[in-house]
Amino acid sequence: MERLVVWSPRVLSVLRIITALLFMEHGLMKLLHFPAAQPGAPDPLPPLLLVAAWLEIIGGVLLMVGLFTRPVAFVLSGQMAIAYFLAHGSKGFWPALNGGEAAILFCFVFLYLVFQGPGEWSLDAQVRKRP
């Protein structure tokens, strides 16, 4: 059990990095159609989706490297809560039926990062170590 506790900050970093990469993909699909265009996204994007795409890309990069993790995660958690209620919640109560599982999961992983921080492998951790 002690060995697992020692790895906890590193695994938190892995969770943050993987989540950020998956999140960035949504913004890249909206904005650059990479790796493909996001299904159902209008072309051209309305202003609200343009802002969402930039938040997903820039916020995803910042989370991936672990820079300004807590405030960025707070903003992205709020973005995902709003996205859920605007895009998914109106389609029904059950997330599995309204397509909102990813938005809810992103929302709560980001909220967790607000309170837990970035983990050991992050630029935030490196900045804290400097004298």
UniProtKB/TrEMBL annotation:
Keywords: Cell membrane, Membrane, Transmembrane, Transmembrane helix
UniProt subcellular location: Cell membrane
Alphabetized InterPro entries for the sequence: DoxX, DoxX-like_oxidoreductase
One Gene Ontology CC term in the entry: plasma membrane
Topology of the protein relative to the lipid bilayer: Multi-pass membrane protein
Chain segments annotated as transmembrane: 6-24, 45-65, 71-87, 94-115
Pfam families hit by this protein: DoxX (PF07681)
Domain of life: Bacteria
Family, similarity comment: Belongs to the DoxX family.
Name the record gives this protein: Putative membrane protein
Organism (species): Caulobacter vibrioides OR37
Taxonomic path: Bacteria, Pseudomonadati, Pseudomonadota, Alphaproteobacteria, Caulobacterales
